[in-house]
């Protein structure tokens, strides 16, 4: 039997923590009450650098960036394929969380592209992002356009 493990699978399971074990029914009830208020049930771990110390669990967001100046549009096609792979992996793991991560499509180097190339990539990205219901933003680090809004 062959198993296909993708790097995204390992990344998606990083934020998972085991449910606490309780010594008594009283502790279990207190934990259930604490879960009703944000952060009351959270006990921040103190430990080695490899210990997850985040305040929120399974709160993910993804920026899928592509090169707007790519003449052939390969960068955009790869971003689309990555988005498809990410959604597929998230749907397969759906039992773990009801929360959906934020996924944004970001076109970079908007200042570098020729007008025709940029127009073609922008139109393709907009149409695709509307179909997939994924926000699309264009950025230019050189001209400082769109960077603050996205990042």
What is the gist of this entry?
Helices cover 38% and strands 11% of the residues.
Task: Describe, in plain words, how this protein is organized in 3D.
The chain is of the alpha/beta class and 151 residues long. It folds into 2 domains: 17-54, no CATH class; 61-150, Rossmann fold (3-Layer(aba) Sandwich), CATH 3.40.50.300. The chain is built from 5 helices and 3 strands. A 3-stranded parallel sheet has the order 1-2-3, covered by helices on one side. Strand 2 (102-108), helix 4 (115-132) and strand 3 form a beta-alpha-beta unit. The chain starts with 6 loop residues before the first helix and ends with a helix. The relative contact order is 0.14. The mean pLDDT is 79.
Write the layout of secondary structure elements.
Elements: H1 7-12, H2 25-34, E1 61-67, H3 74-92, E2 102-108, H4 115-132, E3 136-138, H5 147-150
What's the CATH class label of the largest domain? Alpha Beta
Name the strands of the widest sheet in spatial order.
1-2-3
Q: Strand share of the residues?
A: 5-15%
The largest sheet, given as strand count, sense and whether it forms a barrel, is: 3 strands, parallel
Structural class: alpha/beta
Q: Report mean pLDDT, rounded to a whole number.
A: 79
The name of the CATH topology of the largest domain is Rossmann fold
InterPro entries: P-loop_NTPase, Small_GTPase
Pfam families: Ras
GO molecular function, one term: GTP binding
Descriptors:
alpha/beta, Rossmann fold, 2 domains, 151 residues, single chain, 38% helix, 3 strands, 3-stranded parallel sheet
């Amino acid at each position: 039997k062959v198993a296909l493990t993708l790097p995204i699978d390992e990344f998606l399971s990083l934020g998972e923590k085991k449910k606490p074990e309780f010594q008594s029914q009283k502790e279990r009830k207190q934990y259930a009450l604490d879960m009703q208020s944000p952060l009351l049930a959270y006990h921040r771990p103190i430990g080695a650098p490899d210990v997850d110390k985040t305040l929120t669990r399974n709160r993910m967001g993804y920026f899928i960036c592509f090169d707007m100046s790519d003449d052939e549009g390969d960068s955009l096609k790869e971003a689309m394929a990555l988005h498809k792979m990410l959604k597929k992996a998230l749907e397969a793991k759906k039992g773990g969380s009801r929360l959906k991560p934020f996924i944004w499509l970001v076109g970079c180097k908007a200042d570098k592209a020729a007008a025709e190339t940029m127009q073609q990539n922008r139109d393709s990205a907009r149409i695709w992002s509307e179909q997939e219901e994924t926000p699309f933003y264009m950025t230019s680090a050189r001209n400082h356009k769109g960077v603050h809004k996205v990042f």
